[in-house]
Amino acid sequence: MSSAEPTRRDFLYIATGAAAAVGTAAALVPLIAQMNPDASTVAAGAPVEIDLAPIAAGQIVKVFWRSQPIFISHRTQKEIDEARAVDVNSLRDPQSDEARVKPGHDQWLVVIGICTHLGCIPLAHQGDYDGWFCPCHGSQYDSSGRIRQGPAPLNLYIPPYLFLSDSKIRIGETETAHT
Amino acid sequence: MSGNSTYQPQSRFMQWFERRLPIGGLIYSSFVVYPTPRNLNYWWTFGGILTFMLVLQIVTGVVLAMHYTPHVDMAFNSVESIMRDVNFGWLLRYVHANGASMFFLAAYIHMFRGMYYGSYKEPREVLWILGVILLLVMIITGFMGYVLVWGQMSFWAATVITNLFSAIPVVGESIVTWLWGGYAVGNPTLNRFYSLHYLLPFVIAGVVVLHIWALHMVGQNNPTGIEPKSEKDTVAFTPYATIKDAFVLVVFCILFGWLVFYVPNYLVHADNYIPANPAVTPPEIVPEWYYLPFYAILRAIPNKLMGVMALGASIVILAFLPWLDTSPVRSARYRPLFRQFFWVFVIVCIGLGYLGSNPPEGYYVIFARLFTIYYFAYFLVILPVLGLVEKTKPLPNSISESILGVAGPTRAKA
Predict the structure, then answer these.
(1) Which pTM was predicted?
(2) What residues of A act catalytically?
């Protein structure tokens, strides 16, 4: 029996087992997929338009997109200069300030206001770098939203957005999208 | 070790029933005539307490679920309504909330007992691993229950803990979105936590059955760490263990009652009486006391991924304890060096708890790092090496000899 020719019964065992395995895997798909964001959540995550005109220089406002806080910082010249004076290679997550803003809109920094450590909301205008300080575990971000100190591994994320005019942005769409 | 089933039902009905479902005999052999070592001390009573706590949590939890609403707009108010409007709602909720604390307290004592007397060693490895699984499911269940209150601490604990998974390279962010069912912690998250918080206690109950089954397969360990050799070494579970368990349970419930009736919010963070606000993070996020040692380990390590891995490893490493401890002698009674390292380990665990409740700065971080190093060194260095170099004291010939002196065997049977 041991090393004999495969029989038709062997084939049936393997075929039955394979069918059961594939069937179980297929049954797991909806059970797992149902936990991902549903259609209404995705629909509610459509782009939002923000008017920048009321935001004074030096002010940081918090808006929500996809239930995530978005910081819009109207930076002063001093804050921009500070962000650009840093040696990029000395940063934990090396990224130049120019790469974090839209060309010609240097004064506007738009970042997702969620600490990249464990998801708390950092506090604006606090910490040693003219940026943000996270009260949970002490991470500090500079005026470009880059991680400078503390346990967070990455800079504050930049959401997809584009300028519709000099004083209006749409969060949730990139440059390529139609207007 | 299986108790010889001498169960003889008295009534005609029970005789009829026993021939069809021998549950009377199972109970009789497992909890009446079951032989327990005669030298068990009070540290052996926490298994019974844990069983009581599990039943109590399930009973109060099922009742609370009749009044709770798992929706972000209503959850917090429904909890307040339980406290103010529902008949005896305040009692049921305080028992359930403080019950979680007492449950963990008993579990930790139960585990330290096992570690002191070497209860994890051959042939009790599977029994021990089932216990580690129970601890893990308890941790998940307790965390989800805390989130249901939907206060500020609930919301931000949910955010921080689910974000631990974002440390996983490549797939981390997708896993977190999947856990949330949205782009942040929200209503889908609350709903699924409610569903799982109701399910997991029954999973715990199932694993408890396996835990007790494994226990009755290999028999209980005892303070000498040597196996019972004759009938003189054991006594019947009932009345000896039953009455002892009952006595300690009453004492335990006095402490429990003091918490519930005199300081019901002593162990709760005040911020959790503020409704959840996704726009504002509280000034400090502190977990429940029973998670603080693990939280301290997470924060002691300055790298996110490493911190999360250390947190997970601090629990998983317990499952490997039977093979990390190389000493053939079970009980700390006969291991003078081990005993000292063990008590340092206990102090380190409590110290990590203290550090976890303090902000991660200055000396707190330094001590948290030192204690974290000791925590892992205890398992990975001290226990493997100690078993090879330690000179243990001579073991007694039998349990009854250890109690009655060397000339013991002449005494009458218990």
Answers:
(1) 0.90
(2) 137
